[in-house]
Design brief:
By secondary structure, the protein is α+β, with helices and mostly antiparallel strands. About 30% of the residues lie in helices and about 25% in strands. Helix 3 runs antiparallel to helix 4.
């Protein structure tokens, strides 16, 4: 005779009933119905099943709703059976309608994909013979199931087309803008030296032409070294700085 019958016939004292019940729960004396059963006998045989289960030889078996009208899922989804129920899962992006997960279970390929063997694969529009981007200054970039047209380097999109970016306007520097005051003074002295050379050449009128040119160049060089800048260099040399 098991413990439950002893309790029912009140053979055990009442004060022990609660303690024995708890011990039976933890020890496994009290057993629940198997999964899926709504009603079961004393020997744990199913006599009725929950929704989503079917009674078969005193056992509740999960019903595959995906094989019945109950598993009717919206377009571009597929039925996935679960314990006691089902769920509708989205098709792969490559599919337009499917019978399961992945690009190999498509009913047909979505736009931007083509059938290759048993799978729907992305179409590389940028490598097709027909140019995907019609603009002369556009670059085609392939994406999953599509493509995009980007402006080439140095161009920007304006009004639906790619136009060249405007470069910032900068003032051009003159020939002598970066020169220091000392250098300008030296050039002035050299210029005066050349002028003196030209005057000496005109005055010579003969074999003395080349001599006058030489004297003018010498005068220009002397003017450079006798400038304030040359004086500072000489002063630094004398003082050892």
């Amino acid at each position: 005779m098991d413990v439950m019958r002893l309790i029912q016939r009140r053979i055990l004292p009442r004060k022990w009933v609660q303690a024995v019940w708890l011990c039976c729960v933890f020890a496994g004396c009290v057993q629940s119905c198997p999964e899926g059963c709504s009603v079961c006998s004393e020997n744990n045989q199913c006599q009725g099943c929950k929704a989503g289960w079917t009674l078969y030889v005193n056992t509740c078996v999960d019903t595959d709703e995906c094989g019945t009208e109950a598993g009717n899922c919206p377009y571009n989804t597929y039925c996935f059976n679960t314990e006691g129920s089902f769920e509708c899962r989205g098709c792969d992006p490559a599919c337009a309608g499917c019978m399961g997960g992945g690009p190999a279970r498509c009913r047909k390929c979505a736009s931007g994909y083509r059938l290759a063997g048993a799978r729907c694969l992305d179409v590389d529009e940028c490598s097709d013979q027909v140019l995907a981007c019609h603009g002369l200054d556009e670059i085609c970039t392939n994406t999953e199931g599509s493509f995009q047209c980007d402006c080439a380097k140095g161009f920007m999109r304006a009004g639906g087309i790619c136009v060249k970016k405007q470069q910032p306007i900068t003032e051009e520097k003159g020939l002598f803008d970066d020169m220091q005051d000392e250098e300008v003074e030296v050039l002035q002295q050299m210029f005066f030296g050349v002028v003196l050379c030209a005057l000496a050449t005109l005055a010579a009128k003969g074999d003395l032409v080349y001599t006058s040119v030489f004297m003018g160049a010498l005068a220009a060089m002397a003017g450079y070294w006798l400038s304030d800048r040359g004086g500072r260099l000489l002063d630094g040399f004398i003082k050892g700085r």
